[in-house]
Amino acid sequence: GSSYDTGSATDQLWHVHTLRMANTATGQTIATTTTYRIDGTAQTLTRQTGTGLWQGMASSNQIAIGALPTSVAATALSGDVAIVLTYARALTDAECSQVERYALAWLTNT
Predict the structure, then answer these.
(1) What percent of the chain has pLDDT over 70?
(2) DSSP 62-90
């Protein structure tokens, strides 16, 4: 697999992170089929390891949020996850913006 890093929010405020994977077919380039935004602003993903290509997702039966399941201590999130929304398809830019506004409103009203 491949791992990526980005300069992300490191303050103590709530932030809305949006990850959109438009095409996860085996062999597709991760960087060109994935969009990552923080508070609606596009972030640059920098590949740290791997080929940078999607590998077979059909056999994967897990999603990790906050830590990689194979090495939890080394990759654990130091923070809180308040809301996770998943969709069966990649959202459009306008839909992502709408979801980001909803999540931010939800976070600031709780």
Answers:
(1) 71
(2) ---SSS-TT-HHHH--SS--------SSP
Q: What is the pLDDT of residues 40-81, one digit of tens each?
A: 888 887 777 778 887 765 555 566 676 666 655 556 677 778
Tell me the pTM.
0.71
- Measured distance CA(33)–CA(51) in Å, rounded: 14
Q: How many CB atoms lie within 10 A of CB 17?
A: 16
Cα 99 to Cα 110: distance, rounded to the nearest angstrom: 17
The strand pairing partners of 38, in sequence order, are 17, 41
Asked whether the beta carbons of 29 and 42 are under 8 A apart, the reply is: no
52 — phi, psi (to 5°)? 85, 10
